[in-house]
């Protein structure tokens, strides 16, 4: 019996190891990465939708490799896929405005592939003024990156009904499976909007960058 238990323990350990680093169809080992983004509004007043307050954003232990390297910049290296989880500082777990303790929730997350100030190196601000109903995002950002992405709006998460699901925690999948084009990787910017639970609703925003290294 003891030898069987030992065998099962070893087998389980091997299985967990393989799950954490599975080779893809080409035989290249993929790594699963989990990034947490902390959204902090403490000390910052919200504002109307056209003049929101600014979120302090942090991605502990995670920084971009190219261009500006500010807090909130997310880096997925070549052959890393995984997830990005957005959390509100001081709000543990996933809650909605229906909880009496919750004062603000994530109401929207958007993506853009356009740098607000184009240049030789990507900057930390994206251009979210583009009308995606006229100029939709290329399908590669959904098929090779973020499956929840609506190409015609740039939205990957939205909760407009404050009494419904509005969340203090939102998890996005990042496939990061485009071909590795060059050392620059694929740059995309994310814009997170927080909204108050009280009406009339007021808002905060932040819009850093994601750098995807792709898959070999």
Task: Report on this structure.
The protein is mainly β and 216 residues long. Helices cover 11% and strands 30% of the residues. The chain has 2 helices and 11 strands, in the order H-E-E-E-E-E-E-H-E-E-E-E-E. It has helices at 2-20, 140-143; strands at residues 31-40, 53-54, 56-58, 74-76, 80-88, 104-112, 155-158, 169-174, 186-196, 203-206, 209-212. Strands 2, 4, 6, 7, 9, 10 and 11 form a 7-stranded mixed β-sheet that branches. A 4-stranded mixed β-sheet has the order 3-1-5-8, with no helix packed on it. The protein starts with a helix and ends with a strand. 31% of the residues are buried.
H/E order of the elements?
HEEEEEEHEEEEE
**Portion in beta strands:** 25-35%
Extended strand count = 11
Average of pLDDT = 83
Enumerate how many helices there are, as a single number: 2
Residue runs with pLDDT of under 50 for 5 or more positions: 1-20
Instruction: Kindly report the oligomeric state of this protein.
Output: single chain
Secondary structural class = mainly beta
Taking all Cα atoms into account, the compactness measure Rg is 19 Å
Distance between the termini: 45 Å
Q: Any key phrases for this structure?
A:
disordered N terminus; mainly beta; 216 residues; globular; 7-stranded mixed β-sheet
Topology at a glance:
Layout lengths: L1 H19 L10 E10 L12 E2 L1 E3 L15 E3 L3 E9 L15 E9 L27 H4 L11 E4 L10 E6 L11 E11 L6 E4 L2 E4 L4
Parallel strand pairs: 1-5, 2-10, 4-11
Antiparallel strand pairs: 1-3, 5-8, 6-7, 6-9, 9-10, 9-11
């Amino acid at each position: 019996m003891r030898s069987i238990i030992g065998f099962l323990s070893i087998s389980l350990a091997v299985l967990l190891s393989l799950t954490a680093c599975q080779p893809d169809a080409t035989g290249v080992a993929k790594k699963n990465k989990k990034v947490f983004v902390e959204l902090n509004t403490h000390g910052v007043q919200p504002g109307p939708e056209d003049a929101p307050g600014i979120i302090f954003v942090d991605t502990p232990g995670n920084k971009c490799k190219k261009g500006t390297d500010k807090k909130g910049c997310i880096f997925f290296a070549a052959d890393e896929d995984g997830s990005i989880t957005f959390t509100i500082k001081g709000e543990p777990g996933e809650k909605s405005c229906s909880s009496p303790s919750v004062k603000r929730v994530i109401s929207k997350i958007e993506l853009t592939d356009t740098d607000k100030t184009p240049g030789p190196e990507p900057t930390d601000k994206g251009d979210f003024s583009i009308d995606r109903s006229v100029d939709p995002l290329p399908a590669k950002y959904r098929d090779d990156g973020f499956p929840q992405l609506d190409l015609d709006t740039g939205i990957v998460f939205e909760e407009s009904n404050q009494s419904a699901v509005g969340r203090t925690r939102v998890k996005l999948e990042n496939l990061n499976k485009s071909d590795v084009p060059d050392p620059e990787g694929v740059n995309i910017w994310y814009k997170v909007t927080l909204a108050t639970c009280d009406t009339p609703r007021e808002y905060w925003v932040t819009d850093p960058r994601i750098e995807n290294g792709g898959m070999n």
